[in-house]
Amino acid sequence: MAAAEEYLPLPDDVDQVLVVVAHPDDMEYGGAGAVARWTSRGARVTYLLVTRGEAGIDTLPPDECARVREAEQRAACAAVGVSECEFLDHPDGLVEYSVALRRDIAAALRRHRPQLVVTGNHRESWDADGLYLNQADHIAVGRAVIDAVRDAANRWIFPGAGGERWDGVQGVALAGSPRARHAVDISGHLDAAVASLQAHERYLAALSGPMADAEAFVRRAAEQAAERLPGATAAARFELLHP
A Pfam family name for this chain (predicted)? Predict the structure, then answer.
C-alpha cells in the first residue's frame, strides 16, 4: 500500500479571517487549533454561526438550549482568542441552501472583508469511502459559503447587503473534509484547541461515545493529521478551494 501523501501547509499569512459554520461546536471539532495559531499571530478572526444550535441537546427545550449553546460558543471563541461571534438565527436542523442564506453570508463577507474564509466539510460524507454520512446543515452551509464568496464579489448581486462588494477572499478552507490536502501546524496550540471544545460543557455532557471526550478526540485527530505534515506534532487539516 502506498504511503499517504503529505499535507501542504495551509497559507496563513492573512490578517482577516471569517469562520462560517452551521452550529456551535462545529469549528471546535477539528479547526479551533488553527484559529488559535492565527490569533496568536495577530490576525482578526470572526465567527459567524448560521444557527444557535437550539436543537442540539435533547433534554433542553429549544429556547433554553439556544441560550446555553450561544454562551458556550462565546466561551469556546475566547479560548482561542476570538471576541467577535455573530449568529444568523436560521433554524437548527432545518437549514436550507437558499438565496436568503447566500445573502446573509455575502453580507457578512462584505462587512468583515476577510482574506481567508473557513467553513466546515460540505461533502456528502466525512470519509473518502463514503461510510460516515455528513449532516444536512453542514452540507447546506458549506455550499452556501462557497457561493456567497462569489456573490460578495459581484456588485450586482445583493446590492447594498453588507456594504461595498468584497473580492479579496484568497481561499476557502474546509475543516475536516475527506478531500483535505492542506494542514495547519498547531503544535503550540493544542491545549487551546482542547479548551475550546471543552467550553461546550453541557453539549458534551449530553453526548456519548468518542465525541463526548473532548480532549481525547481533539488530541487524537490532531496527532493523526500531524503524521502527514512534516515537522508538526499536532495539525488541523483542511481542503483548500480557490474562488
Answer: PIG-L
User: Could you give the CA distance from residue 119 to residue 168 in angstroms, rounded to a whole number?
Assistant: 17
Report domain extents, the chain: 8-241
Tell me what pLDDT residue 1 has: 37
Rounded average pLDDT per 10-residue block, the chain, 243 residues:
80 94 97 98 98 97 98 98 98 98 98 98 92 95 98 97 97 97 98 98 94 96 97 98 91
- Other beta carbons within 10 Å of 124: 10
Residue type at position 81: G
> What is this structure's pTM?
0.96
Q: In what order do the strands lie in the sheet with 171-175?
A: 8-9, 182-185, 235-241, 171-175, 116-120, 16-21, 44-49, 84-87
CB atoms < 10 A from the CB of 32, how many? 30
Determine phi and psi for 145, rounding to 5 degrees. -60, -45
